[in-house]
Amino acid sequence: MSVADWYSRKGLALFTDLYELTMIAGYWREGRANVPACFEYFFRSLPPHAGFAVAAGLGPFLDYLENLRFEEDDLSYLRSLKLFDGDFLDFLRDFRPTCSVRAVAEGTVVFPQMPLVQVEGPILAAQLVETALLNMLNFATLIATKTARICLAADGEPVLEFGLRRAHGPDGGLSGSRAAYIGGCVSTSNVLAGKVYGIPVAGTQAHSWVMSFPSELEAFRCFAHRYPERCVLLVDTYDTILSGVPNAITVFKELHGEGYRTRPAIRLDSGDLAKLSKIAHEMMRDAGFDDPLIVGSNDLDEDLIADLKRQGAKINAWGVGTHLITAYDCPALGGVYKLVALCENGQWQPRIKVSANMEKATEPGRKRVVRYYDKAGHPLGDVMYQDSESWAESGVIVGRRRSQPHLRRRLNNAARAEELLQTVFERGRRVTDPPPINEIQQRARDQIASLPEEFTRLRNPEIYRVILSQATGDLKEEMLEKPELM
Hints:
About 45% of the residues are buried. The chain folds into 2 domains: about 5-145 and about 330-485, nicotinate phosphoribosyltransferase (Alpha-Beta Barrel); about 205-295, TIM Barrel. It has helices spanning about 5-10, 20-30, 60-65, 70-80, 85-95, 125-130, 130-155, 170-185, 190-195, 205-210, 215-225, 240-255, 275-285, 300-310, 320-325, 435-450, 455, 470-480; strands at about 35-45, 55, 100-105, 110, 115-120, 160, 185-190, 235, 265-270, 295, 315-320, 335-345, 345-350, 365-375, 380-385, 395-400, 410-415, 415-420, 420-425, 430, 465-470. By secondary structure, the protein is α/β, with parallel strands linked by helices. It has a 7-stranded antiparallel beta sheet. It has a 6-stranded parallel beta sheet with strand order 7-6-11-10-9-8.
């Protein structure tokens, strides 16, 4: 089953907030359904202590968009609400979204306020997809970002995603596993995610397996002989040091004696992980196993992993569940979807949302986002240009502050430029095949590796520069004075 099949068969046309439907019914009744509009998706702030985010969720959104249809049972339900005219529901029967989408590639490191997705098309269609886009990108970007921080703490050691049983419902588990893999996990325990997305699956056994046998040793033997090439033994059911590790050693010696070259592997899921891992490692080394795999689990997050490594823990693989799949310290990413331009009488007109809080004032106009890099390939900052503007490729890049557009900001010593928003969907169809998920994961790894260390540290990261071009700054400053006249 392809990802597109998964989303099309779910019937997601009504996966939206009611006000999207009442608004599009209003556009249709007022004869404004086909007014060209441009909306942009961005988030306002990073999760706590994060210096960057990892863009994720675009692939599922494009699958949703390409397969967006109102089925007869959808229309019957809408009719039962007694909110919509019959002729409008007849219109929805044949509705197809003819939008175009420009977006930042999944796996790109991204920052607050920069547009990640731009949806352009008839206002009825562009408005309708708002809720689904926010749902799919906010959650996925949040989980990919949390995972990336956990993987940074693990410092190159494998992170296994164990979050399904604590995820927020079935789709929170499925989309969370996909996002976690993009963020850097090497595998998931979620078998459906393995099937739908092609993510490697991995797991060990539960304490109930060990407890169901007459002895721990028998439980280990049975599991090892059933899965000799993928055997990780859970050693903390009774006593990790007095029975669990010795019994695991016995079983791995037996496997080696039978000709299997299985790497001895255990999992620690409770207790003092730093102390137990050191003792277990020494015991396994003394038994002749020079390179044992010790998987640590039990409510881990990036801070605990970093602390365990500071203590010299001998854990060399990390099973992370609850704190990863729920983004435990940040329950939601504040992504928004705002109208930035309308095409009236054949001319694009910028739009702005004004707020007493200047950080919430939006950036007007259809924009392009350009990322500048230094000679070493490190990102220097991003600039939001108007769609019709040209831009410098290198040198000193002069722009404006977002919240104070009359003030200048500079990016010095730019060596090259990259336009981030690329067309991925045009007039209702993808323009390219979706990339394999392992390529998205590799992009994320490469992007994170390109960041200077001050943006990837776990505490007090540097703030990345996202600024306005001079033209965008002038436009924003003018519109802030008289927004209703623009």
